[in-house]
Design brief:
This protein has 220 residues and is α/β, with parallel strands linked by helices. The protein has seven helices and seven strands, in the order ααααβαβββαβαββ. 35% of the residues are buried. It is found in: Nucleus, Nucleolus.
Length: 220
């Protein structure tokens, strides 16, 4: 019974996070921080059923590159990324129960412009204003900096109401990035990697962002 109640609360919070803005989500958890713990407990339970964790692939990518690269982990959860690499990692999420995690709206981090080498979004493009998170990543990334995105595969399946991955990649390219990797080989998630262009894009308002459908979990 407790597991069913916990699962129900997780699904309710999860749907809320996908259908509100980042600022609304921040206020939601400020009103009741215990909901954040409830959400992440449910999230970890869901992830336990995945044969492979996308965060581990991103960890492997970082370990294959210089440990001097400075990383921003947007929507870090339990900060597993920071705990498993030698790099300096700025970990951001809506609530912080860990001194190493900075609580904030991901569209407005305290980082300086052009101060980060790698920006990571691992299953964290939640919220109706996800494009503002990517704009913030562009702001804080150095020229030629890397943007690593891992997202639930169904969100990029046009046959089931998901976004067209080509349209999504084009929007990020219009923001000021070049696509370097599109990996759809995993049945659970996709990997989309980009590199920031050297010149600033001043026509950002004309970008057509596709809608990313909410990832709603079924009862088990």
């Amino acid at each position: 019974m407790r597991a069913r109640l916990s699962g129900g609360h997780f699904r309710m919070i999860n749907e809320k996070l996908y259908t509100c803005t980042g600022d609304e989500a921040l206020n939601y958890f400020k009103e009741d921080p215990s909901l954040f713990d409830m959400y992440h407990t449910g999230y970890q339970e869901q992830m336990s059923h995945w044969p492979e964790q996308p965060v581990n692939i991103i960890i492997q990518w970082l370990k294959a590159h210089s440990s001097s690269l400075v990383v921003a982990d947007f929507g870090c959860g339990d900060a597993r990324l920071a705990k498993n690499v030698k790099n300096k990692v700025f970990s951001f999420d809506l609530v912080s129960n860990d001194p190493s995690v900075i609580a904030c709206d991901m569209s407005n981090t305290p980082l300086d412009a052009s101060s980060i080498d790698v920006a990571v979004f691992c299953l964290s493009l939640m919220g109706t204003n996800f494009s503002s998170y990517l704009e913030e990543a562009h702001r804080v990334l150095k020229p030629s900096g890397r943007l690593l995105i891992a997202e639930v595969k169904s969100r990029f399946d046009p046959n089931t109401g998901g976004a067209d991955p080509k349209m999504f990649s084009k929007a990020i390219s219009d923001l000021g990035f070049t696509s370097t990797l599109k990996d759809f080989s995993n049945k659970m998630f996709v990997l989309l990697y980009f590199q920031k262009k050297g010149k600033e894009n001043l026509t950002r308002k004309g970008i057509e962002w596709p809608e990313l459908k909410p990832c709603l979990y079924k009862r088990r």
